[in-house]
Amino acid sequence: MAPPGPSSSAALAATSPAAASPAAVAAAAAAAAGSSRRDPDAAVALLHAAGDDMEALAEAIAEAAFLDATPGEHRQKLRAARTRLRNLLAAAARADAADRSPHARSEYSVDDFERLTVQYEKLNWRMVSKPGGATVKPDDFYRLYALHMQATRGDVEGERPMWAERGGLDFEGRSRWDAWAALRGSDPPKCALRFVRLFHEFSPAALYKDTRAAVLGAAAS
């Protein structure tokens, strides 16, 4: 009688008293995984299931490396998956570069704080739509606002805004209050330096047009 294969071992582990043993379960799972790793159809299915998840796709490609020695459709699908991963990585790198601020520096000075606090609200911030036709600014605006307030006034006081003057929820007031309240207890001088850093480093995507170069150039002169 032939010894049981990996799938039989898994079934035996599930039905025997040893099934309650973590070691037995792990051994059965390892045996099943070892079998599927050499199955071309299963390997291709993993490549397909990974979709555009770069981490999952990289793992599936590593598992399917044995297909390099299998001429035909399976190997072509492995090569196509590698091309897809390269394209995804390149797109991610481009997106990261687009999000990276060209104004970032290695060091910042709190001496720039006062001059920059009168500029950040004047920047051409993008608007984000909210229910009911209301709009708010990107999160980086409210982070700057909160750091400004915490640095100059300390902890937020009063109740969280609820209603806007023209009716409906006060999304703008609530966004400002929430960001400020999140800094409760933070050291004001440190918040001033954090403000300067964030002003330089927030993503240009938060603005319709990034005009910080002129502002920062004037601050440096």
TrEMBL record:
GO molecular function: fatty-acyl-CoA binding
Domain ACB: 116-208
InterPro entries noted in UniProt: Acyl-CoA-binding_protein (IPR000582), Acyl-CoA-binding_sf (IPR035984), FERM/acyl-CoA-bd_prot_sf (IPR014352)
Pfam families: ACBP
Alphabetical UniProt keywords: Lipid-binding
Family: Belongs to the ACBP family.
Protein name per its UniProtKB record: ACB domain-containing protein
Species: Edaphochlamys debaryana
Organismal lineage: Eukaryota, Viridiplantae, Chlorophyta, core chlorophytes, Chlorophyceae
